[in-house]
Amino acid sequence: MQKPTALAIRTTLIKSPAHPFSSPRISRTLRSAAILVAATSTLTAFGATEYGNRWQRHRNTQTATTTTTTATPTPTTTTTTTPTTTTTATPTTTTTATTTATASANNYYVATTGSDSNPGTQAAPFRTIKKAASVVKPGTTVHVAPGTYAETITTTVNGTASARIRYVSDTKWGAKIVPASTAESMWKADGGYTDIDGFQVDGSGSSTATIGMRLTGGNSSIKNSWVHHVGVNAQCNSNGGAGMLADQGRGQTFSNYDFTGNTVHDVGGSCGWFHGIYHSSTGTVKNNMVYASGQGINMGHDSHNVKVVNNTIFGNANYGIWYGGCTEAYTSSNCPISGHEVHNNIIYDNGGGIQGPIASEDGSNSFKNNLVYRNTRNFDLSPNSLNQVSSMPSVDPQFTNYIRTGGGNYHLKSTSPAIDKGLATNAPLIDLDGTPRPRGAAVDIGAYEY
Predict the structure, then answer these.
(1) Tag placement on the chain: N or C end, fewer CB within 10 Å?
(2) Which residue intervals define the domain DUF1565 in the entry (predicted)?
């Protein structure tokens, strides 16, 4: 049997007004031949569960083709160092602690047992991520041990194209960030060429935090992370918010923000001004699962050339995918919507499917091989966009066990029409479980490869 994924979240859906910041209302057994070290840990939080593996391989290679994925959030983590993989029929997380790098000038370590007066070595780690962020330089990797870090993080040092700065949770989702009581953004990465990998961000204890993780420095990424319960206690107004956000700022030239292999849910409740993932520049949004939020994935403001590929988006109050590209208000003269590629996504059971404004598009957008089904309105596209739509079946994707609010299994059944129906162009080389793509004649649609 296929490993089940369990994610349980409850949300109340209502309609909400549109705003320039957002949009109107909006699996075959896992077989991977390269698991070196795996361990089982059970993590459960707020009734949401999901599975994951291949963390050791991901940490060793640090490439996009070894993205570690899914886990099931629980209050405890159990790890092992035996070269076996444990699979059970109960909600589990396969994770591996990998704090094995030798202390050097290019590595710093953070642990809840540490002190910021320490040198930040593996034997004497820092206590806070903020401290490590203050001493990094291009090429540095910050290793963060499991535990809860009650801090608001702002990283400002720039890496370079050949020497990126990396912040890595040594156990996937094991390092949990909870915000300060007055925080707006829980993690803000102002420095460019920065990668944030494998963290959990939990905003359930804050009434002010409206953004989970925010990228403002160019050429940066968030990978394999879990962001949840952001803005659920905040007011629903035009200030909006997001679980993950890439914001270059209007008129600026920063670019290339990537969101890969993340799970985002319960962002803003049913408020349409809140988004699971919000992207306002160039880059990619791949292999993500987004659900139970105001909106799913939003490309707005100055966004262009964003590749939104192989995501599974369901149960959001408003639109599953919304695309824009407007500098201010949405009018036909100021919306340079161009270069977006929306391929291989499952958009299911949302307030809306795919929506874009009536604007002066140049015909360079592409909406292909998406499975859009059981949304209140599947398509709401401008006339020009309709000419760019192809192979978009409106059929049931046939999840193994669909539950709208989470807690189901969102892998594909063997009879799913999404199997072998995706495009290879810009498709990720692995799925959300780390399973290589394709496994059949072609890439499957959605975040999971059957």
Answers:
(1) N
(2) 113-153
